[in-house]
Structures are given as C-alpha cells and as structure tokens.
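S.,

Sequence below, as promised.
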Amino acid sequence: MSFTVQRGISVSGKYDFCPACSSSIHCWRNKRVGDIEYRIEKCTSCGYAFVNPRPTLKFLIDYYLNTGHGQKDKCKLVDDVLNSEKQYPNSTIDAQRIIKTIELMNLSIESKAFLDVGCGYGFFAREAIINGYDVVALELASEERHIAKQVAGLEPISTSFENFTHSNNSFSVILMSQILEHAFDVNLWISKAKELLVTGGVLAVALPNFHSIFRKILQEKDPYICPPDHLNFFGPRSITTLLKKHGFNVLEIQWVSRIPLASLERRFSFLGENCIAIVSKMTNLTLMVIDGFHLGMIMNVYAKKVVS
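The prediction came back faster than expected:
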C-alpha cells in the first residue's frame, strides 16, 4: 500500500492491488459526494470494488459516532423505531431468516456465544436472544445503543470492531449485518472474526450485492454506492474469495430484494389502496425472480470456520 492525500478528507493509504485476492486493479468509477470525489477501483479477477484511497480509521470512527444509521441530524425515539418496525417489519423478518439459517448450520456446537458487530437498533440481537444465544453487541453510535438497549434488553459496547478485545475461540456465531461494506480493512475484520470464532463457528454477513441487476443498471448511481458510508462493494465471487483466504468455508448465499411498501405507497398514492396492493404483489413476484437468478439487492452469506 502506498500513501497519498485526497483533498477534503483524511486519507491513510492507497492499495496497489486487490485486498481480497492480490490481483491487479483498475479504476471503475469516480463518485462525487458533496465537494469530495471518491475513486472506486475494481479487481480484474474477483470483481471486488472499493474506495481507493481510503479514509483513515479515525475519520470513520468519528463519522459513525455522529451519523449512526445514516440519519444525520434526525434523533429517533424508541417508540418511533418500534412503531415503524411494527408497520414494516423488515428487520424482524431479516433477523428471523438469518438466525434460523444459522441454527440449521450450527447444531453441533454447544456454545451459544453470539457477537453482533454493529447491532444498530438491536432487532437481530433480540432475535438471537429469543433463540437462546448469549449476545455481545457492538455499536459506535450512541442513539442506536440507547434504542438497542430497550429493544433487545442488553447494553451494547461502545467500540469499533477494530478496537474490540475478547479472548479468542470464544464465539460460536458472529453476525456482520450491513456493516462489512463500511469496514476500513476487510482483511482485518475477517481475520479477527476467525480468531474470535470457535472452529466450526458460523460467520454470517449481510451486505449489498455489487452484482445486483439494479447496480448493473444504475452503475455508480446505485444508492448502495455511497462513500464514505460504504467503502467496499462485494459480489458473491469476491466475498467467497475473501472468506476462503482466511480459513472459512462458504456454505450458503441467500439473495434478498425488497422495495419498502412505504416507497410504493408514496410513489403510487394516486392509484388508491387496492391498486397499491396489486402493485406491491407484482413487485414482490418480480423481486423473487431476480433473487432466483442471484441478481438481488442484498446477499446473506453464511460461512464456517474450518481452519483453527
């Protein structure tokens, strides 16, 4: 990694090769956000794309302390979060699917120690607790920690994953839901997850699919291509390459696409309630087909630690 400077933001370094597989890289797109232009490079082999050069880790930690879930300058109350989730239970549905899948893969391990990296509002931690796991949750943003405490009944630790300390081989499950795309150093994160997991433990990663049909159409205008919030853009091949490099065996990848009902209601409000219901059903059927072709918006990746 060579070092450089980018105007308007602290930058720690520039990769000269793919961090996932060490192959050559080339410029894919430049993405301007405000008055800062971010260069996004892409691997010629595994297809991993990433912001290069990188913001510093200090910048990212300070950034997420202030932005949390991306709701800048919008303070949320726990009742608002719970009411929204009750009306549109997206996080609950995702949490139930992921925990159920983990349970099917993790039956041979007696330990129920569960690490939730970047727990957000705590819906995944809550589902893990319901299924008998002993959960440790990490969350930098104070607002999210406050809400997660009330949603899941635990006290999230205010730390980045980089600075989290715990004995090795102590967790049976590590969840990284919508967080690896934010990571400063993906190799450090996966390597650390391996150290913290028992052999046979499950690492579950949910993140945007860089190879989705929506990204292919929108290119850098895809809403998930949003530096400095998102720095890493994985497809199934690149995330599998990264995990295998660090001693994981990928067991399953699920593709999940969802357009929030609230968005459809706003866009098609002129049609009336019955017509919106029809549009919603047709949209969901279309998304199911897209997921079936592995072109969905989100990937849920499940891997077991096979190397001690």
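The chain has one domain: 11-305.

Coffee later?
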